[in-house]
Design a protein that fits this description.
This protein is mostly helical. The chain has one domain. It contains five helices and no strands. Helix 1 packs antiparallel against helix 3. The longest helix is centred in the N-terminal third of the chain and has 24 residues.
Length: about 120
């Protein structure tokens, strides 16, 4: 169980860290999605901060499990909101958000499974 927990958590942290960096540098791909969803580009920095916090929280969770659990749950909530925003805007390009939601859900499941010994 430890190896699965380790791999899933690291993958989720890397993916969210990468997504955060795209928000921070103002990548064109992020701007295109923001425009498609009719969102102001000024939200790129706060959303990047949330993603980076989630990624860091997942990694800190190796030492402080309660923070890892909170970060994983927070990322699930973030991506549920992201998917609902795509749906509200009638955007069919929701695949990325679903992938990230599945990664975050995997982090929740493996984190609770490892630390609570399901």
């Amino acid at each position: 169980m430890y190896v699965i927990y380790l791999v899933v958590t690291i993958l989720a942290a890397l993916a969210n860290g990468y997504a955060a960096s795209l928000n921070f540098v103002g990548a064109e791909s992020v701007k295109v999605v923001a425009d498609r969803l009719h969102m102001s580009r000024k939200w790129m920095l706060p959303f990047g901060t949330l993603l980076a916090s989630g990624a860091i929280g997942l990694l800190v969770g190796f030492a402080v499990p309660v923070l890892g659990k909170a970060a994983a749950i927070g990322l699930v909530v973030y991506f549920i909101c992201a998917i609902s925003t795509h749906i509200r805007a009638r955007d069919t390009g929701v695949g990325g958000a679903i992938f990230f939601l599945l990664l975050a859900a995997g982090a929740v499941i493996t984190t609770f499974g490892y630390h609570n010994h399901w």
